[in-house]
Design brief:
Blueprint (H helix, E strand, L loop, with lengths): L7 H18 L5 H9 L7 E2 L2 E6 L7 E5 L5 H11 L3 E3 L5 E3 L6 E3 L8 E9 L2 E8 L5
Parallel strand pairs: 1-8, 3-6
Antiparallel strand pairs: 2-3, 4-5, 7-8
Helix pairs in contact: 2-3
């Protein structure tokens, strides 16, 4: 539904972001798919690579970055991913971006445009692995 009281330029930006989200969601793991996968996994498994925060992705502010370098378990990631659905994140250079179930995911530190698309999540033995692809290699 279109918010007619919203600034026309903001409506245009939101529409452009949605088009990009839909395209990237075709090959990225999305926030909703991440939550659905984590629900069926034990909540005490480590994540590989280690992660520890969520932020707006520097490359596409309307996308979500899973930040490397923390000590979250699958339970932590599930809790934070669930909380991110419907939450508004601030873009690196400003602007507010509401995350939703179709939001594409990246593995990237805050403020970095890593190009590491998260494609899938897999439980292997005693850890859960984020499967990534460097999409800069495709350029």
């Amino acid at each position: 539904m279109v918010n007619i009281t919203e600034d026309p330029m903001q409506r245009f930006i939101n529409a452009m972001n949605e088009v990009g989200n839909r395209e990237r969601a075709g090959y990225h793991l999305t926030l909703g798919k991440l939550v659905a996968a984590l629900v069926d996994m034990p909540d005490d498994l480590p994540i590989v690579p280690a992660v520890g925060d969520l932020s707006s992705y520097r490359g596409y502010y309307s996308d979500l970055a899973v930040e490397p370098g923390g000590d979250w378990t699958t339970g932590d990631l599930l809790k934070e991913a669930n909380a991110a659905i419907g939450q508004t994140f601030e873009g690196y250079k400003g602007g507010d971006f509401k995350m939703h179930e179709r939001t594409p995911l990246w593995l990237s530190a805050y403020g970095i445009c890593s190009g590491l698309a998260i494609l899938d999540i897999e439980q292997r033995e005693d850890a859960v692995h984020l499967i990534t692809k460097d999409v800069h290699d495709d350029e």
